[in-house]
Amino acid sequence: MKREQVQPPKYARKLLLWFLKDEIAEEVEGDLYEMFCYNQEEGSQRRATLLYWFQVLNYMRPFAVRGFQTFIPVYFNVQVSYIKIAFRIFSKNKLSYLINTTGLGLALACCITAYLFVAYELEFDSHHQSPQAANIYKIHSTISIAENRELVQIQAPVPLAPELSKENSSIVNYCRYITEDALILSENQQPFREEIAYADPAIFEMFNFPLLTGSEQSFPKGRQVFLSEAFAKTLFKWEDPIGKTLTLHVKNKEVVELMVGGVLERVPDNNSFIFNVLLPFETFLNIYEVDPDSWAKGWKPSTFIQLAPGITAKSLSEEVNSFAHIRNNRISSEEHTNYSLEPFMSSFHYDEIESSYVHLRVGFLPLIVTGFMALMILLIACFNLTNTMIAITNKRLKEIGLRKSIGANSFQIFSQFLTESFLVLFFSLILGGLLSIWIVGEFRAIANFKFGLEDLNNGNLLVAMLVITVFASVLGGFFPALQNSKLSPVHLIKGSNKLRGTNWFTRILISTEFGLTVIFLIAGQVFYQNIDFQAAIDFGFAKEQVFIVPIEGEKEYLPFKAATENAHVIQEIGVTVSHIGLQQSSEFIEIDKQKYEVSVVAVGENYLFSMGFEVNAIDPPTSINPIDQGIWVNEAFLKETKLLAPFEEKISLQSGQYQILGVVNDHIDDLQEGKEARPFIFYEEDPTKYAYMIFQTKVGKLEEGRYLAEESWKELFPNRPFESFLQEDLMLE
Amino acid sequence: MSDIRLGEFEETTLLLVGILGSEAYAFNLAKEFQEKLSRTVSIGAIHSTLKRLEKKGIVKSEIGGPTAKRGGRRRRIFSITAEGQRVLLASRDTKLSLWNQYPPLSIDNFKLSF
After folding, report:
1. Does residue A623 register a pLDDT over 50?
2. Which of A263, A131, A273 is nearest to A210 (CA)?
3. What's the alpha-carbon Rg for chain A, to the nearest Å?
4. CA-to-CA distance for A211 and A62, rounded, in angstroms?
5. Do A55 and B25 touch (CB under 8 A)?
6. Contact in structure between A30 and A8 (CB atoms under 8 Å)
7. Which one of B23, B29, B42 would you mutate to disrupt binding with A, by most A Cβ within 10 Å of its Cβ?
8. How close, in Å, is residue B4 to chain A by CA atoms?
9. Above pLDDT 70, what percent of chain B?
C-alpha cells in the first residue's frame, strides 16, 4: 500500500534555503526532496525526517553556503588593518601599554597558578583513566564509634580482598596498597628517607604504571624493588639501575637487602599512588610477620578490587558487608564496621576520610581561596586596562570621526577597539606564561605542592587560558570599545565632542581597583603577621628546645643515652614509642557508660619531663620513670570526662586497665585542628619497641646539642646514618 | 598523460557518473554508492566533489527538466568530459600496471584478458 506522501520537515527546509546559495538551491532542494520520498517508501517517516535533517546539515560546506567564499578574505583583510593600527597606537603609548601588559601578565601568571589547583582536582587520577578503570572499586570501612558519629577509612583488613576473591568469581583482580616512611641505603651507604609503598602485583594490571626499564614479571619475585624515575636518577645517576642492590631499614626490624628490578616512568602528582620505592605486598607481610589470614586490628591496607565487565558493585555489596560480621565476631570490643565499594574514580577529600594510604584530592577550600585571589588580581589589571584605553581614546577622537564619516559603522569601530584589547591580552598571555614558571615554582615551594606545570594536560590548559584571555580582553576592552562606537562623527571631526576625564563608570572602576588593592595589601600584612603569631603560640611544652632522634629499640637507647647524658647542653633525655605530632593513635574509652575519643601516646622512660611538661601527681615522682603501671592524662581529658576523683579512677584501654597516676598540663599537638587542647593519655610501652629518643637542650643550645648527639652516634653506630628533626618543625608542618 | 591526480572517492564518483549516464545527478549517485558499494555517502559530499571536478574540467553539467518525483524541481545532470576520460584511463592503466607487478594477484595468473 502506497504511503501517504508527507512533506519534508518544514524547519529543515527553511534552514537549507536560508544558508544555501541561490544558484544551486533548486537542484539541491530537488535532490533532498527525492531522497526524502525514497526513504519514506523504503523505511519509516521518522527515519526519512532524520535523514533529511542530516543531509541539510551536511550541506553546510564552503561551496554551498552563501557569502562564505567572499566573507573570509574580506574579514581577514579588515582584521590585519586593525592589528596594524593597534601596533601603531602601542608604539605611540609605549609606557602605558607596557605597564598594562606587565600587570596583566602577572595577573595571568597568578591565574595559571590558581589553575594548578583546579587541574589537580579535575584531573585527579586521570593518569589511570582507562576502560577498565570503570570496573575498579576501593573498599571503604565505615566505623560507628558513637551515636551519629562515623569514621570512614579507605582501608580494609589484610585478608578481606583475597577471601572475597576466592568466594566470588566476578572479582577478577585485587590490589592491597600500604605505605610507610623508611630508610633506604644506596650501595655506597648513602641514606635516603623515602615513602615506601607495598602493593600486590596486580597493581600493574589494574593501574597505569608504565616501566622505563625492567619487567613487571620480576616484581613478585623475592626482594625485588621498583624505583620511580626521579629516585633512580638520584641513586644511580645515568647508570643502569637494574640488578643493583639497596638496603631497606625498617624500624625495629631486620635490615632487608633489595635488588632493583625496574624503574617506573614519572606519573603526575595528582594521583592516588605516590611513592619513590615500590615493593611487593608479600615483602611487607614477611618484614612485619603479619599472618595473611589474620583479621586482627592493626594492619589495614588500602584495598582495590576489579570486577568483571558488566558486574556492578551493588550486586557485591551484601557479600562484602557480610565480612563485617566475621570481623566483628573475631575482634572483641571492636566498633561496628560496615564495608562498601566506591568507584575508584569517585571524589573524596581529606576532610571526609579519617585515614587512607592512598592520596586524596585537595578539597574545595584551597580551590576557592586561590581562585578568588587570582580573579581579584585579574580584575584589578583589567580595570587598569579599561582606564588606560579610555584615556588614550581621547587622543583618537578625530580618527574615529574620520572613519565613521567614510562609512565605518558602530560595529566596526567596536571591533577595532576590541581587537586592540585582545592584542594586549595576547602579549600579556605570553609574558604571563613565562612569569608563571617562576611564580608556580615559588608557590609550590611555599605550599609544599608537588603538582606542577609539567603535569598539566596541555589541551585543558590551552582551553582554560583561552577562556581567561577572552574574558579578560572583553572585560578590559568592552566599555571603551562600546563608548567609542557610539560617538557622533560630525561632533568628533568638529572637535566639539571631548570625552570627559572622568565619568561615573571610570570613577567606579578606579575606586574598585583601589579598594581591591588595599584589601590585598592588608591581607598580605595579616599573612605576614600570622607567621610571627604562629611562632609565638605556647604549645604547652618546650618545643624550641627539643630535638628527636629515631632509634631501634632499647638496644640503641641505652648506649646512646649513656654516651650523651653528660653533655653540658643537654638537660633531659627521654624515650618513646609514639610521639606527639608524629605518631599518636585514637582510642575510644568508656567511663560511666559514656564513650570518649582520646589520643593515646605510648611512651617510655622520662618522656614527659624531656618534653617539658608540668606534672601534677599523687606522689611527686622520685625517679626518672614517672609512668609505672599506670597512665598519665592531661587537663583536657579531665575536662572532657568530668572525672571528680581522677586518681581513684581505673581506665580501660586496649592494652589493659590502668590507674591514673598523674595529670600533665594541656598542650597543642596539631595547629590545623585548632588551638584547643585535646584529651590525651600517656601510657608506658615495651622498651623493645622504643622508636624515638627525646633530647631537651638548654635554651639556645639546640644546634650544639644536635651536633654533640651526632658525634656520639657516629662513634657508637658507624654503619647507621644519624637522623634527627626538630620538634618545632614537626609542629609547624 | 594527464597531470590531474584523482583521490579514491573522486575516482569512484567519476566512474558512477559514467555508469549512470543521463541519470547521473547527486541523489542518484548517493543511491548508487549505497546499493553498489554498501557505502553511505551524503549528497552534500557528492555534490561538493562534483563541483570540484567540474572546476578541474573533468566533468560538465547541465540542467535537466523538472520531474514530479522532485516536486517539480529541475536536476543537474553531470557527464564526463574528454579530459575526464583521459584522466580515468590514465588512473586505470597505472593501477593495472601495479597490480600486474604483484604476483599473487596479477591478472596474468588468472589468465584474464581485456
Report:
1. no
2. A263
3. 35
4. 48
5. no
6. no
7. B42
8. 21
9. 90
d(CA A327, CA A179): 23
Does pLDDT of A332 surpass 60? no
Q: How many CA atoms lie within 13 A of A369 on its CB side?
A: 7
The string of pLDDT tens digits covering residues A162-174 is 988 888 888 999 9
User: Hey, is A661 helix, strand or coil?
Assistant: strand
Tell me the three cell numbers of residue A389: 584605553
CB burial of B75-86 (b: ≥16 within 10 Å; e: otherwise) equals bbbbebeeebee
DSSP β-bridge partners for residue A615:
A664
**pLDDT the model gives residue A49:** 93
Q: C-alpha grid cell for residue A173? A: 583482580
| Pairwise CA distance, residues A494 & A591, whole Å | 92
Cell numbers for A308: 568483571
Task: HSE, CB side, 13 Å, CA atoms: give it for residue A592.
Answer: 6
pLDDT tens digits, A489-512: 776 677 665 555 567 777 887 888
Per-residue pLDDT tens digits for A562-615: 999 888 999 999 999 888 877 667 777 877 777 788 888 888 888 988 988 887
Q: Are B50 and B105 in contact (CB under 8 A)?
A: no
Amino acid identity for residue A50 in this structure? L
Residue A621 is predicted with a pLDDT of 47
- Report the gap between the CA of B61 and the closest CA in chain A (Å): 12
Residue A20 is given by DSSP the state B
**Is B48 in Cβ contact with A61 (below 8 Å)?**
yes
Residues of B in contact with A29 (CB under 8 A): 71, 73
Q: Which of residues 37-76 of A touch B (CB under 8 A)?
A: 37-38, 54-55, 58-61, 63-64
| C-alpha span between A115 and A113 (Å, rounded) | 5
Q: Contact at 8 Å (CB) between A586 and A669?
A: no
* pLDDT tier for residue A466 given thresholds of 50, 70 and 90: confident
How many whole angstroms separate alpha carbon A41 and alpha carbon A2? 8
Q: Is A181 exposed, middle or buried (0-12, 13-18, 19+ CB in 10 A)?
A: exposed
Average pLDDT, chain A: 83
- Verify whether the Cβ–Cβ distance B26 to A28 is below 8 Å: yes
Q: How far is CA A39 from the centre of its chain?
A: 55
Test A26 with B74 for CB contact under 8 angstroms. Answer: yes
Q: Tell me the pLDDT band of B52, cut-offs 50, 70 and 90.
A: very high
Q: What does the pLDDT average to over A55-68?
A: 89
**pLDDT, average across residues A148-170:** 85
From residue A603, give the alpha-carbon distance in Å to each of A227, A600, A615, A692, B42: 35, 9, 15, 9, 80
Residue with cell 577509612: A153
Per-residue pLDDT band for A335 (boundaries 50, 70, 90) equals low
How far is Cα A52 from Cα A39, in angstroms, rounded to an integer? Answer: 9
Helix (H) or strand (E) holding A98: helix A94-122
Q: How many CB atoms lie within 10 A of CB A247?
A: 15
Assign residue A721 a region: left if phi > 0, alpha if psi is -120 to 50, beta otherwise? Answer: beta
| Residue A307 near residue A172 (C-beta atoms within 8 A) | yes
